[in-house]
């Protein structure tokens, strides 16, 4: 009778290492690009109250002001940024069609994403994408400013140093806009 040979521990370890590598390749690597777009890249800084060019468009912070909101956590304040963007060329309008993401960052480096549950400014679009009466996206026209808003809930101690950051989907870096004065 022949004895069955058992695989060595080294073979098990190699199999486990291969499975782990495959898991990383399938689950992590595709998300690295998304993470880099969201968190990485170099900012294009705009001076307080000034506009800045990014992604073939001119971005400006029209206002950053306290806004309304109910049932907010203690010690937090709602704030709404109204942003204007003017594509310089048709290609910039097409790039904007992929979407954009707004966040605020304070001087300590803390970052907050938008809160779509806040009311914001009545009559101002919620997205950097222009839409028609049926709410379907329209191409952004060169030279025509799109005014849109993003609202955030931030700690009260962050209000005095907030900057608005906008990232275009698929573009390197981001634009950082500073208000002419801190929100009151």
Verbal overview:
The protein is of the alpha+beta class and 184 residues long. It has three helices and nine strands. It has helices spanning 9-27, 29-39, 90-96, and strands at residues 43-45, 52-54, 57-66, 76-87, 100-105, 111-113, 146-155, 163-168, 174-177. It has a five-stranded mixed sheet, with no helix packed on it. Strands 2-3-4-7 form a four-stranded antiparallel sheet. The longest helix is centred in the N-terminal third of the chain and has 19 residues, at 9-27. The radius of gyration is 23 Å and the shape is extended. The termini are far apart. The model is unreliable at 31-38 (pLDDT under 50).
Give a short summary of the structure.
It is built from 3 helices and 9 strands.
Class computed from helices, strands and strand pairing: alpha+beta
Shape: extended
Distance between the termini: 88 Å
Q: Number of helical runs?
A: 3
Low-confidence stretches: 31-38
Largest sheet: 5 strands, mixed
Report mean pLDDT, rounded to a whole number.
Answer: 81
- Rg, rounded, reads 23 Å
Helix content range: 10-25%
Strand sequence of the main sheet, in spatial order? 1-9-8-5-6
How many strand segments? 9
Give the topology.
Elements: H1 9-27, H2 29-39, E1 43-45, E2 52-54, E3 57-66, E4 76-87, H3 90-96, E5 100-105, E6 111-113, E7 146-155, E8 163-168, E9 174-177
Parallel strand pairs: 1-9
Antiparallel strand pairs: 2-3, 3-4, 4-7, 5-6, 5-8, 8-9
């Amino acid at each position: 009778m022949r004895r069955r040979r058992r695989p060595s521990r080294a073979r098990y370890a190699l199999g486990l290492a291969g499975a782990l590598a495959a898991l990383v390749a399938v689950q992590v690597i595709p998300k690295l690009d998304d993470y880099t777009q969201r968190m990485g890249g170099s900012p294009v800084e705009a001076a307080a109250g000034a506009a800045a060019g990014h992604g073939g468009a001119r971005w400006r912070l029209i206002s950053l002001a306290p806004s309304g909101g109910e049932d907010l956590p203690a010690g937090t304040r709602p704030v709404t940024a109204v942003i204007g963007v003017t594509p310089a060329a048709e290609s910039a309008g097409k790039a904007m069609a992929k979407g954009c993401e707004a966040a605020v960052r304070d001087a300590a480096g803390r970052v907050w994403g938008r809160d779509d549950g806040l009311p914001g400014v009545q009559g101002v679009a919620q997205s950097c994408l222009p839409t028609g009466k049926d709410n379907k996206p329209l191409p952004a026209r060169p030279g025509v400013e799109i005014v849109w808003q993003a609202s955030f809930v931030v700690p009260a101690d962050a209000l005095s140093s907030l900057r608005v950051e906008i990232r275009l989907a698929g573009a390197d870096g981001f634009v950082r806009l500073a208000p002419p004065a801190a929100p009151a």
